[in-house]
Design brief:
Length: 262
Amino acid sequence: MLNTAVKAARLAGTIINRASFELEQIAVEQKEQNDFVTEVDRAAEAKIIDVLLSAYPSHAILAEESGASNGMNDESENVWIIDPIDGTSNFMHGFPCYCVSIALRQRGVITQGVIYDPVHNDLFTASKGAGAFLNNRRIRVSKTDRLSRALLGTGFAGRKKNPEALKEFLRMFETMTMNCQAVRRPGSAALDLAYVACGRYDGYYEKALNIWDIAAGSLLVSEAGGIVTDFDGESGFLESGNIVAATPRVFAQMLPLLKAAE
């Protein structure tokens, strides 16, 4: 199953890379305020679904652009969760921070995760209970144990913009900036989580995300030895879209500060 997801991600990456040389010719549609989809998103997603269903025709699909399909419902045992381009706004502007994200949820548990960065040809993979890997090399979260030395990632979901949410984001941003080494906001939640898993970040937090933004990345972090929860320290982040991920010691220092800033 993991190999099939890797094949799908790489084929989608080929479509994305080819299109990246002709950005001015790409058709763009606005779904909501600050939320866009391109013909490349749709083409990449169609390729991913084709590869997955060719191998597993009975599996259900939950994808960002086409939604639920192939019999997807609350009782589905096997569901592929797909984001063909996480970081579409970056892609549209030629900003090289976006990725393909594919996860498999089996009986409610994420068991496989693939994040592919086509710009840098970085392939992140994880299988539940079998560890996390970057380009077939085992990865672990960083050994940073103090928040004051931590590099953190965050984001602010553009389509959720409202004054109160923005104020909360800024409170959290100020709190984390005052207590850590630095905070970055590059604009791809899936890559942010992959970076926590391989130690490029020491922690990451964000609210109001969709399940396809975080399903694969959350498995990567946990399989790399990190902790992933919602802002209450519970396991409901896939449902709420509110996620905190970090090395164990940095996590313990981040969570109470984030709760206070809420």
